[in-house]
C-alpha cells in the first residue's frame, strides 16, 4: 500500500460520495459483524466436517424421510435467488426509473444465494467426493440433471448480469479511490465512459435482461420438477412449476426488501433507498402474495376435491397432522400478516414492508419444508408412524452457516463495490428526467391547441 | 491422509484375511473409501457346504452351512431334512450373528466381589471345573447329593443327556427343566386323556378344519419352520379344496391374520369355549359315536370298582356348558358357538389345536384336556389329518451303576414336587423357587444353570432370582451374560452349536422321529469347551461311579454311540428326498424298510454327511401305542388322574369327586373389579420365541414388525378401552397389576379384545449383550401367576390389571 | 433374455420373516440397534409390511406382505438417477452400482415402494461378527444407496456352473436367498418370459395382483391374494 | 491483456494442481517384493507356463500366488546354494524361515469390481497375455501396484467378444 500513497491522490467524488463510504472506510462494527458471521460459519464448517467424516447419519434423516433441511434449503435459496436477476431484469425492461438504486442490491442477492442453493445440494450428497459423476456419467433423463444445467446457466448469466452494470462503477472506484487500484483496474476492463462503450454496455445489459428472464423462470420450474416428476403424493402436480416460480419471486422480493432495509440502515442510504422504493416493492409483494395464495389454494383444493387416498394422507398430515403447526404458520406468515400490512398505504411504510418481508421469508421457508418432508414421511406403503424427522444440530448449524455466509458475502460485496449503482443514479439525474418526460409525453395524446370550433352550420341557416 | 483411514474397517478386513491395496483410481479419492469393500486378497476362495443341526431353537432343523476359508459365511436349509426340507426360519438365518456374536463369552468367569455385583474375573477352564467339582465333592462327601439342583435350559441332545446321566450318578433327583412348556406343550393333557407320555403332532396339512385356541401356531410354535410349512400345505396343498381355519385368541395375532376367522375370547377361558362346543356337538349328536363308543372312557356316567357311580363327560357338559353360560364366561356369542360346533363336526378331519405354543400360552391342564376332548369327539385321534402320537426314541439311555450315596440321594423327592403326585409329567420349575426359599424338604446347597435363564423367562422370575441368591453356590453354563447368571459364582461359556458335536431328537408333525447330527463346521474357539466335555470333566474329577456315568471320551464318541444305537435298531434311513405320498403309503402297508447301510462305518459316514437319520414310516391305527395306560382308552374322565390321585376318596359327593377327573373349565362371568378392571394378556413375540440367543440384532429388529414396532415393549389396548382411560396413541401408560407396574408406550389396536391389555414377551432383559440389555420391559414382572394344580407350572393368564396415563 | 421375477403367495406365506433375515445374511446387511431402527436406519431389503384391513375387526382382512424390491419393468427410481447408478439390466433386474452412486437419494424418494436403502454411516460389524460376510457380495460404503439385487451374484454363479457343464441353466438353479429359505414355498422364482415356467403360470393366475398396480410400474414381483 | 494473462495462469494452476493430485492418488502403492522375481527368466529360459505357478487361474476366482514349496519343486537348496545370486539367497532364507514368502499383490482391479479368473480363463478361453500383456517380459517386479485394466478396457473386450456388459456382471 505504500506504493499507492506515492501516487497522486485521485480526485474525490463530489456527488454520491456517501456511496463510496463503505468501501473507503471500515469501522470496528464491520469487524465485529465479520467476526460474528465467521464464527457461525465456522460452526457450520465444523458440522459439515463431522457429517463428511461420519456420513449423513449425523443428520435427522432416515427412511422414509430421505430428504430434509438440505433440500429445503436448496429450494428456498434458489427461490430467494429470483429476487435479483428476475426483478431487476423486469424493472429494467419496463423502464421503471425507480429501479436505479435497487437493482444492484437485488442482483447481488441472486449470485450469492445461488451458491448456497447449489452448496446445499452438495452438502446433501452422501458421496460429495463423487459429485463430478454428475458430469462424467450424466443421465439427462433425470430432473436433477436438468437442475444442474439450468442452475449452471443461471449462475453464469446472473454473474454476468451483475458484472456488466458494475463496470462503470468499478471504473469510478479505480479513478476516485486509492484502495486496491490494481483490482479495480483489472475488473474495469478499461472502461472510460466513452459513448461507444456506453452504447455497447446498454445493448449488452438489455440483451442479458431479456435472456435472463426465461432462464430464471426455467430454473425454478426445473427445481419444482425434481419433485413433480416423481409419482409421490402431493409432489406429482402440474402446477408445481408456476407455483414454485411464483413462490420464488415472492420470497425473492421479500429477501430484497430485507436486504435493502439493512443496507439503508447500516450505511445511511436513506436518500437513495426511499419510502417510494419500499412502497413500490411492497405493492409488488402484495400482488405476489395473492398470486401465491391463489396457487396454494388451487393446489390444496385440487388435492382435496380429488380426494385420492394417498394424496389425502399427506393432505391431512399438513392440515391437521404433525405438520399442521408448520402449515398454519406458513399460511399466516405468507398471507395474512403481509396482506394486512401491505394492503394499506398507512402501514406500507419501510418498517411495515420489512416486517411483512421477514414474515414471508419465514413462511416461505416453512412452505418449502412442508413441500419436501410430509410427502416423504408417509409413503404409499404403510410405514411406522413414529419415525419423525427432527433436524439435528448439524443441520441447524449448516442452515445458520448458510445464512451467515450469505450475509458475509453480501457485506464483503458492499465493502468492495458500491451497493447502489452510482453511474445509473448519475445517468438518471443527467439524462433520464428529460428522457422520461419525453417518454411520458409519447404515451399521452399530443397536447394540441384546441381546433377552431367549426361554425355551427345549421345556425346560420 | 491419516485421518481418513478408518481403523475399525482395517481391523475388520485383516480379520477377513483381506487387504486390497490402493488402486490407481480415476478419482482422487482417499484409499480408505475403497477399503470399505469386503473384498479379499484372493477373491472368493474355495467353499464347502456342511450339513449340521440348527441350534437356534428346539425345532431340530437341518442346516447346510456354507464355509469359505473355514469361516461360516452363509446358511441354507438341508433340502433332505424331513423337518425343514430346505427351508429356514428367521432364527436359523441369524445363526451367523450368534456364532460370531461379539458379546459371546469366551472364557470362564468367576464372580469377584459380592454376588450379583456383575464384576467378573477371567479364569482358566481347569480352575473353573475344579471349583465346581470341589463344591460338588464336598456336598456328596457330606452325603447330601440331593442338595444339588440342575436347571436345564436350551441345551439339547447331548448336553441334556449328559446332565441327566450325571445327575443320576451324582445322586440328585433335582434335574429340572426351565422351559417345560417349550417341550411339553399339550402333553400333560395328552397324558391325562390318552395316557401317552409322548408328545403329539397335528397333521394339519391333511386336515379339513382347524380350530386353534390361542395356540400361536404361526406365532410361537415349537418348530416355526414346520408349523409354517404344514400351514401352507393345509392352505394350498389340495387344489380345489379350501379348508377352514378358525383362530380363537384374545388378541389378533399372526395366526389370526392368516386364519379365515378370528374370534376374540377372554384370556384363560379357552377350555370353557371348547366345552361349549362339545355341548352343542353332544346335544345335536354331531360327535363321532363310533370312536367314542369303541375307544372312549368316561363319556357316559361310569361306576368304579367299588360300585360308586361317577359323573361322565356327557352329563357334565350338558349340565354346565350350555352356550348361553359359556357366552357369559368367554365373551364368545352363543350363535358363534353353535356355528363352530356344526362346522367343526361336519368338515372332517377336524383338529382342535390347543396350547402347543410357547410359554405365555401356558394354560390350566383342564383347559387343554377340554380342547383335546374335541379331537376325540370329532374322531380325529390318530387318523390322517388328525392327531398323531410321536414315535418314541430314546438314545444314550443305557443303565449304569450308581453308588450308595447316589441311591440314597435319588430316594429324596424332587424339589419341584413329588414325582408321583399331582403332576402330569415333566418338571415344574416354578415350584423350585419356593422349595429353595423355604429349604423344604431339604436345603439346596448348589445349583447349576445349564443354558437356562429362568430369572427372565419365568412368570415369577424375580422370585427365582431372589431364591438363587440364597443358594450358597451357583454355577452357570451360558453363551452370554443374562439375567440369571448374574446371581452365579461362576460362568462357564457354552460352545456354539456350529462348533461342537451334538445330536438332537425331534419329530415331524406326522410323528416321524428325526435324529439330526450336529458337527463342528468350524474350528472351535481356542478356549472353547462343549457342554459334554465339561460335564464329563466334572464327573471324572468326582471319580468313582460318578465318573462312569459318561463313558464316552468326548462329544464325538458320544455322537458315535448314538449312531451305533440307531444302526443297531436296523430301521429308518438316512435323509433323502421327500417321498411321494403314495409311495410312503405303500411302504407303510407293505412294511418295507428303507435301504439300510450294511456296515456301521458306511452308515455313520452317510448319516453325518447327510445330516441325520429318520424313520419315515408312521402306522395309523396302532391303538396300543396311541391310547395307553391305564385303560388303553381315550379318557374323557381321566383314569390317569384317578391313579395319580391315588385313591378317590370314598366320602363326599361322588359327582364332585369325579368332577376332578373331568376337564373343569367353569369361567366366572366377567366381574367388575374396581381396582383392576382389565385383564392382562401376555403373548410371545414371533421370531424371539424359543430362541437360544437374545442378542441377535436382526431378530430384535423384526420382532415387532407386525405392529410397526421396533426394539421396545409396548402395550396394546383397544381404542375404545383406551378412550375410557383417557389414553390416546403415542401416550405412555403405567400398567399396574397386583404384582407390579411397568410404564409402556401405548399402541391402540383393534386387534385386542375390549378390557384386555396385551403385552408382548421377549424384550426386557436387564443384563446381556449390547443388543438386548435394557431393551424394552419384561411383562413377567406384572404377571400374578397362579399355579396349575395338575402340573405345578405357573399360569400367565390370570392377572388383572389397570392403566394410568403418564 | 430371461425376465426374472417372482410370485409371493399370500395364502401360503405365514409372515414368519424368514426371508428377511435370509436376505440380511446373504447380502451383508449390517446389524443395527434400537436407535438406528427408531430413526429409520435399519436395513431390510426384504421387509414384512403389515397392511391394516378396511373396516372393523374381526371382519377386517389384513395382510402381512413380504416386500423385496419389486424390480419394476418401468422403475421410477431408474428414471431419476442423475448418474446412471441404478438401471434395469437385460434380465430385468434393477441393479445398483454402489461405486457410481453419489448418494443424492433421489431414487429413494422416487420409489413408491420405499424399497431402497441408504447407508447413513459406514456399516460396521463389531469384532468378530464381520466374519460372516458373504464374499460374493460387496459391503456398501457409507453414503450410497443400496437395494435388493435379486441376489444377482447367485445368477452369475448359476450361469458359470451351467457354462462349465456346457448346458443351459436349469429352472430353479438360480433363486434368491429369500426364495430359497422360504419354509412354505410361498415364493416362486423364475423366468416370467417363459410361459411354461411355474412362476409365469402363477403370475397369470386369477389370484395374481401387483402392488400399487395403478402406478404403472409393472413390478416383476407379483402377489397372489388369499382365497380361491 | 493482463486480465487474460492472470486468467490463463490461474486456470493453469488449478488444472495443474488437479492433475498432480490425480497423479499422486492414481499411481498405486509402493510394492516392495520380498524377492525381485524375474518373470522373463522363468518363462523364457526355464520354459515355464503361467499356470505352473499361478495354479488356480482356471478353477478359482483368483490366480493364486505360489508358496515356497512350489519354488522348491525346481530349486534345490543344496545344489544351488553355492552359486546363488542375491535373489536366490533371499529365497533360501525364506525356505529356512517360518511362514511363507510375503509376496505382494501388484496386479489389481478396482475393489468394487468382482473379477473371476475362472470365468475368464475357463469360461472365456482367454490367454493370460490378454490382460497381462507385459508380464512375461518383466525382469523385475513392478515397483508399484498397478491397475491392470480400466473399465473401458473391460467393456471394449466384453463388447468385442459378445460377453455381458451388464454393470451387475462386474460391480456389486
What report would you give on this structure?
- The complex is a heterotetramer of chains A (461), B (806), C (228) and D (172).
- Chain A is mainly alpha-helical.
- In chain A, 71% of the residues lie in helices and 0% in strands.
- Chain A has helices spanning 2-6, 17-24, 28-54, 69-80, 84-93, 103-124, 133-136, 143-163, 167-176, 181-188, 195-228, 240-267, 275-306, 309-319, 324-342, 350-377, 393-416, 422-443, 457-460.
- Chain A is globular.
- Chain A starts with a helix and ends with a helix.
- Residues 1-6 of chain A have low confidence and may be disordered.
- Chain B has five domains: 2-35, no CATH class; 49-99, N-terminal domain of TfIIb, CATH 2.20.25.90; 109-180 and 395-556, Rossmann fold (3-Layer(aba) Sandwich), CATH 3.40.50; 184-392 and 626-659, Dimethylsulfoxide Reductase, domain 2, CATH 3.40.228.10; 678-805, Barwin-like endoglucanases.
- In chain B, a hairpin with a 4-residue loop joins β27 (732-736) and β28 (741-748).
- In chain B, α23 (555-569) crosses α25 (600-610).
- Chain B is globular, with a radius of gyration of 27 Å.
- The two termini of chain B are 52 Å apart.
- With 228 residues, chain C is of the alpha+beta class.
- Chain C is built from seven helices and ten strands.
- Chain C has helices spanning 18-26, 34-38, 76-80, 106-110, 152-164, 177-181, 198-203, and strands spanning 4-9, 47-51, 63-67, 86-88, 94-96, 117-118, 145-146, 187-191, 208-209, 221-224.
- In chain C, the strands form four sheets. A four-stranded mixed β-sheet of chain C has the order 8-1-10-9. In chain C, strands 2-3 form a two-stranded antiparallel sheet. A two-stranded antiparallel sheet of chain C has the order 4-5.
- The longest helix of chain C has 13 residues, at 152-164.
- The two termini of chain C are 33 Å apart.
- Helices cover 49% and strands 2% of the residues of chain D.
- Chain D starts with a helix and ends with a helix.
- With 172 residues, chain D is mainly alpha-helical.
- The radius of gyration of chain D is 21 Å and the shape is extended.
- Chain D folds into two domains: 1-30; 31-66 and 103-170, no CATH class.
- Chain D is built from ten helices and two strands; from the N terminus they run ααααααβααβαα.
- The longest helix of chain D is centred in the N-terminal third of the chain and has 25 residues, at 2-26.
- Chain D has a two-stranded parallel ribbon with strand order 1-2.
- Chains in contact: A-B, A-C, B-C, B-D, C-D.
- Chain A binds chain B through residues 53, 129-130, 132, 382-386, and chain B through 3, 27, 29, 33, 708-710, 730.
Amino acid at each position: 500500500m505504500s506504493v499507492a500513497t506515492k501516487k497522486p491522490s485521485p480526485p474525490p467524488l463530489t456527488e454520491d460520495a456517501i456511496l463510496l463510504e463503505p468501501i473507503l472506510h471500515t469501522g470496528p462494527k464491520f469487524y465485529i459483524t465479520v467476526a460474528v458471521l465467521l464464527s457461525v460459519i465456522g460452526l457450520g464448517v465444523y458440522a459439515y466436517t463431522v457429517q463428511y467424516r461420519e456420513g449423513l447419519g449425523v443428520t435427522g434423516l432416515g427412511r422414509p424421510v430421505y430428504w430434509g433441511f438440505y433440500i429445503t434449503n436448496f429450494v428456498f435459496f434458489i427461490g430467494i435467488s429470483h429476487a435479483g436477476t428476475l426483478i431487476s431484469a423486469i424493472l429494467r425492461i419496463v423502464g421503471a426509473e425507480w429501479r436505479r438504486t435497487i437493482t444492484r442490491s437485488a442482483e447481488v442477492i441472486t449470485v450469492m444465494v445461488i451458491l448456497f442453493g447449489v452448496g446445499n445440494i452438495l452438502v446433501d450428497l452422501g458421496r460429495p467426493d463423487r459429485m463430478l459423476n454428475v458430469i462424467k456419467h450424466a443421465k439427462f433423463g433425470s430432473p436433477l440433471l436438468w437442475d444442474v444445467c439450468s442452475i449452471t446457466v443461471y449462475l453464469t448469466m446472473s454473474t454476468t448480469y451483475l458484472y456488466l452494470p458494475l463496470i462503470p462503477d468499478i471504473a469510478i472506484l479505480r479513478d476516485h479511490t486509492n484502495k486496491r487500484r490494481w483490482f479495480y483496474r483489472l475488473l474495469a476492463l478499461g472502461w472510460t465512459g466513452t459513448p461507444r462503450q456506453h452504447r455497447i454496455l446498454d445493448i449488452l445489459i438489455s440483451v442479458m435482461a431479456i435472456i435472463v428472464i426465461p432462464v430464471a423462470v426455467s430454473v425454478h420450474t426445473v427445481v419444482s420438477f425434481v419433485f413433480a416428476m416423481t409419482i409421490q403424493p402431493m409432489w406429482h402436480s402440474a402446477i408445481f412449476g408456476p407455483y414454485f416460480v411464483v413462490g420464488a419471486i415472492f420470497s425473492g422480493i421479500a429477501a430484497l426488501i430485507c436486504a435493502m432495509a439493512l443496507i439503508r440502515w447500516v450505511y445511511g442510504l436513506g436518500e437513495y433507498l426511499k419510502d417510494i422504493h419500499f412502497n413500490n416493492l411492497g405493492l409488488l409483494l402484495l400482488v405476489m402474495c395473492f398470486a401465491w395464495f391463489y396457487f396454494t389454494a388451487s393446489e390444496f383444493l385440487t388435492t382435496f376435491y380429488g380426494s385420492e387416498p394417498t394424496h389425502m394422507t399427506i393432505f391431512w398430515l399438513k392440515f391437521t397432522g404433525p405438520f399442521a403447526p408448520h402449515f398454519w404458520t406458513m399460511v399466516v406468515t405468507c398471507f395474512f400478516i403481509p396482506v394486512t400490512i401491505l394492503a394499506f398505504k398507512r402501514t406500507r411504510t419501510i418498517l411495515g414492508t420489512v416486517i411483512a418481508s421477514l414474515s414471508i421469508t419465514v413462511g416461505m421457508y416453512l412452505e418449502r419444508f412442508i413441500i419436501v418432508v410430509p410427502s416423504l414421511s408417509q409413503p404409499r406403503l404403510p410405514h411406522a408412524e413414529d419415525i419423525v424427522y427432527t433436524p439435528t444440530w448439524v443441520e441447524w448449524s449448516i442452515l445458520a452457516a448458510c445464512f451467515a455466509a450469505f450475509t458475509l458475502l453480501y457485506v464483503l460485496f458492499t465493502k468492495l463495490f458500491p451497493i447502489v449503482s452510482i453511474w445509473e443514479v448519475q445517468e438518471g439525474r443527467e439524462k433520464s428526467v428529460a428522457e422520461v418526460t419525453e417518454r411520458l409525453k409519447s404515451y399521452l395524446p399530443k397536447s394540441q391547441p384546441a381546433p377552431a370550433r367549426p361554425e355551427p352550420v345549421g345556425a346560420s341557416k | 491422509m491419516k485421518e481418513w483411514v478408518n481403523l475399525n474397517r482395517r481391523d475388520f478386513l485383516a480379520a477377513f484375511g483381506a487387504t486390497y491395496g490402493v488402486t490407481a483410481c480415476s478419482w482422487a479419492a482417499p484409499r480408505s473409501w475403497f477399503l470399505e469393500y469386503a473384498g479379499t486378497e484372493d477373491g472368493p476362495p474355495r467353499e464347502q457346504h456342511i450339513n449340521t443341526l440348527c441350534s437356534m431353537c428346539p425345532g431340530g432343523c437341518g442346516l447346510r452351512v456354507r464355509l469359505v476359508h473355514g469361516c461360516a459365511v452363509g446358511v441354507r436349509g438341508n433340502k433332505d431334512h424331513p423337518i425343514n426340507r430346505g427351508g429356514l426360519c428367521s432364527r436359523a438365518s441369524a445363526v451367523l450373528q450368534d456364532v460370531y456374536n461379539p458379546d459371546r463369552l469366551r472364557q470362564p468367569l468367576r464372580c469377584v466381589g459380592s454376588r450379583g455385583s456383575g464384576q467378573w474375573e477371567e479364569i482358566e477352564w481347569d480352575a473353573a471345573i475344579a471349583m465346581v467339582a470341589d463344591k460338588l465333592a464336598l456336598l456328596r462327601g457330606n452325603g447330601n447329593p440331593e442338595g444339588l439342583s440342575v436347571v436345564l435350559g436350551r441345551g439339547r441332545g447331548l448336553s441334556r443327556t449328559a446332565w441327566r446321566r450325571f445327575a443320576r450318578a451324582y445322586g440328585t433327583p433335582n434335574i429340572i427343566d426351565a422351559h417345560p412348556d417349550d417341550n411339553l406343550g399339550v402333553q400333560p393333557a395328552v397324558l391325562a386323556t390318552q395316557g401317552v407320555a409322548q408328545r403329539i403332532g397335528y397333521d394339519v396339512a391333511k386336515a379339513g378344519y382347524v380350530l386353534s385356541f390361542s395356540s400361536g401356531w404361526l406365532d410361537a410354535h415349537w418348530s416355526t419352520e414346520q408349523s409354517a410349512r404344514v400351514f401352507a400345505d393345509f392352505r394350498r396343498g389340495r387344489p380345489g379344496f379350501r379348508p377352514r381355519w378358525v383362530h380363537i385368541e384374545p388378541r389378533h395375532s399372526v395366526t389370526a391374520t392368516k386364519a379365515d376367522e378370528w374370534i376374540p375370547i377372554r384370556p384363560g377361558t379357552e377350555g370353557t369355549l371348547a366345552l361349549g362346543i362339545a355341548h352343542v356337538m353332544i346335544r345335536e349328536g354331531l360327535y363321532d359315536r363310533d370312536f367314542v363308543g369303541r375307544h372312549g372312557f368316561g363319556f357316559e356316567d361310569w361306576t368304579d370298582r367299588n360300585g360308586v357311580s361317577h359323573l361322565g363327560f356327557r352329563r357334565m357338559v350338558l349340565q354346565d356348558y350350555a352356550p348361553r353360560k359359556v357366552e357369559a364366561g368367554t365373551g364368545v356369542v352363543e350363535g358363534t358357538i353353535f356355528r363352530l360346533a356344526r362346522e367343526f363336526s361336519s368338515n372332517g378331519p377336524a383338529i382342535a389345536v390347543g396350547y402347543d405354543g410357547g410359554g405365555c400360552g401356558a394354560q390350566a391342564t383342564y383347559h387343554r384336556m377340554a380342547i383335546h376332548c374335541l379331537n376325540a369327539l370329532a374322531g380325529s385321534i390318530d387318523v390322517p389329518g388328525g392327531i398323531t402320537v410321536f414315535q418314541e426314541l430314546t438314545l444314550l439311555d443305557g443303565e449304569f451303576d450308581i453308588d450308595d450315596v447316589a441311591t440314597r440321594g435319588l430316594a429324596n423327592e424332587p424339589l419341584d414336587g413329588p414325582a408321583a403326585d399331582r403332576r402330569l409329567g415333566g418338571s415344574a420349575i416354578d415350584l423350585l423357587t419356593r422349595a429353595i426359599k423355604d429349604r423344604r424338604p431339604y436345603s439346596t446347597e448348589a445349583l447349576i444353570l445349564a443354558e437356562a435363564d429362568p430369572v427372565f423367562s419365568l412368570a415369577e422370575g424375580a422370585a427365582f432370582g431372589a431364591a438363587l441368591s440364597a443358594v450358597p453356590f451357583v454355577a452357570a453354563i451360558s453363551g452370554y451374560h443374562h439375567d440369571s447368571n448374574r446371581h452365579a459364582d461362576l460362568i462357564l461359556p457354552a460352545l456354539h452349536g456350529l462348533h461342537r458335536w451334538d445330536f438332537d431328537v425331534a419329530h415331524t408333525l406326522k410323528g416321524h422321529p428325526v435324529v439330526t447330527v450336529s458337527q463342528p463346521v468350524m474350528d472351535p474357539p481356542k478356549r472353547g469347551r462343549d457342554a459334554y466335555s465339561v460335564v464329563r470333566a466334572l464327573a471324572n474329577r468326582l471319580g468313582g461311579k460318578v465318573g462312569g456315568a459318561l463313558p464316552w471320551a468326548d462329544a464325538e464318541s458320544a455322537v458315535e454311540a448314538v449312531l451305533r444305537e440307531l444302526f443297531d435298531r436296523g430301521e429308518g434311513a438316512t435323509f433323502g428326498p421327500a417321498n411321494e405320498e403314495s409311495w410312503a403309503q405303500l411302504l407303510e402297508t407293505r412294511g418295507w424298510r428303507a435301504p439300510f447301510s450294511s456296515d456301521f462305518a458306511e452308515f455313520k459316514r452317510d448319516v453325518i454327511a447327510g445330516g441325520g437319520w429318520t424313520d419315515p414310516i408312521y402306522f395309523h391305527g396302532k391303538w396300543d401305542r396311541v391310547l395307553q395306560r391305564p385303560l388303553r382308552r381315550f379318557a374323557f374322565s381321566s383314569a390317569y388322574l384317578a391313579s395319580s390321585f391315588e385313591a378317590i376318596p370314598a366320602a363326599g359327593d361322588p359327582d364332585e369327586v369325579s368332577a376332578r377327573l373331568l376337564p373343569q373349565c367353569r369361567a366366572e362371568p366377567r366381574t367388575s373389579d374396581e381396582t383392576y378392571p382389565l385383564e392382562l394378556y401376555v403373548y410371545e413375540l414371533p421370531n424371539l420365541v424359543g430362541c437360544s440367543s437374545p442378542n441377535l440384532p436382526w431378530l430384535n429388529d423384526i420382532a415387532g414388525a407386525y405392529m410397526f414396532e421396533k426394539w421396545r415393549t409396548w402395550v396394546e389396548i383397544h381404542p375404545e378401552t383406551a378412550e375410557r382411560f383417557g389414553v390416546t396413541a403415542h401416550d405412555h401408560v403405567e400398567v399396574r397389576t397386583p404384582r407390579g407396574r411397568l410404564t409402556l408406550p401405548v399402541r391402540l389396536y383393534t386387534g385386542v379384545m375390549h378390557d384386555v391389555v396385551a403385552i408382548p414377551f421377549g424384550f426386557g432383559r436387564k443384563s446381556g449383550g449390547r443388543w438386548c440389555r435394557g431393551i424394552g420391559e419384561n411383562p413377567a414382572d406384572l404377571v400374578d401367576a397362579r399355579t396349575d394344580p395338575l402340573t405345578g407350572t405357573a399360569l400367565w393368564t390370570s392377572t388383572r390389571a389397570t392403566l394410568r396415563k403418564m | 433374455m430371461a425376465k426374472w421375477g417372482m410370485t409371493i403367495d399370500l395364502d401360503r406365506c405365514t409372515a414368519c420373516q424368514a426371508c428377511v433375515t435370509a436376505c440380511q445374511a446373504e447380502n451383508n446387511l449390517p446389524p443395527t440397534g434400537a436407535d438406528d431402527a427408531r430413526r429409520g436406519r435399519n436395513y431390510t431389503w426384504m421387509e414384512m409390511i403389515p397392511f391394516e384391513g378396511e373396516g372393523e375387526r374381526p371382519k377386517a382382512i389384513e395382510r402381512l406382505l413380504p416386500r423385496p424390491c419389486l424390480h419394476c419393468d418401468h422403475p421410477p427410481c431408474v428414471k431419476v438417477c442423475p448418474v446412471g447408478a441404478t438401471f434395469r439390466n437385460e434380465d430385468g433386474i434393477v441393479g445398483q452400482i454402489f461405486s457410481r452412486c453419489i448418494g443424492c437419494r433421489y431414487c429413494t424418494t422416487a420409489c413408491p415402494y420405499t424399497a431402497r436403502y441408504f447407508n447413513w454411516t459406514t456399516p460396521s460389524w463389531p469384532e468378530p461378527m464381520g466374519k460372516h460376510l458373504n464374499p460374493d457380495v460387496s459391503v456398501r460404503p457409507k453414503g450410497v444407496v443400496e437395494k435388493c439385487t435379486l441376489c444377482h451374484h447367485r445368477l452369475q454363479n448359476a450361469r458359470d456352473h451351467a457354462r462349465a457343464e456346457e448346458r443351459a441353466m436349469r429352472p430353479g438353479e438360480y433363486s434368491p436367498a429369500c426364495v430359497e429359505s422360504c419354509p412354505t414355498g410361498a415364493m416362486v422364482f423364475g423366468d416370467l418370459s417363459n410361459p411354461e415356467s411355474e412362476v409365469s403360470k402363477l403370475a397369470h393366475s386369477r389370484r395374481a395382483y401387483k402392488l400399487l398396480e395403478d402406478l404403472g410400474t409393472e413390478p416383476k414381483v407379483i402377489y397372489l391374494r388369499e382365497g380361491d | 491483456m493482463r486480465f487474460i494473462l492472470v486468467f490463463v495462469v490461474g486456470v493453469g494452476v488449478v488444472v495443474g494442481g488437479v492433475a498432480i493430485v490425480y497423479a499422486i492418488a492414481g499411481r498405486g502403492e509402493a510394492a516392495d517384493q520380498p524377492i525381485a522375481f524375474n518373470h522373463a527368466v522363468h518363462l523364457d529360459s526355464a520354459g515355464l507356463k503361467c499356470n505352473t505357478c499361478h495354479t488356480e487361474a482356471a478353477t478359482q476366482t483368483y490366480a493364486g500366488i505360489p508358496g515356497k514349496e512350489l519354488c522348491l519343486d525346481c530349486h534345490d537348496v543344496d545344489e544351488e546354494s553355492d552359486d546363488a545370486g542375491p535373489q536366490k539367497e533371499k529365497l533360501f532364507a525364506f525356505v529356512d524361515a517360518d511362514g511363507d514368502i510375503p509376496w505382494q499383490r501388484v496386479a489389481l482391479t478396482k475393489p468394487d469390481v468382482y473379477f473371476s479368473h475362472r470365468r475368464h480363463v475357463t469360461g472365456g478361453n482367454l490367454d493370460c497375455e490378454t490382460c497381462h500383456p507385459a508380464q512375461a517380459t518383466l525382469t523385475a517386479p513392478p515397483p508399484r501396484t498397478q491397475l491392470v485394466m480400466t473399465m473401458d478396457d473391460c467393456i471394449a473386450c466384453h463388447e468385442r467378444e459378445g460377453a455381458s456388459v451388464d454393470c451387475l456382471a462386474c460391480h456389486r
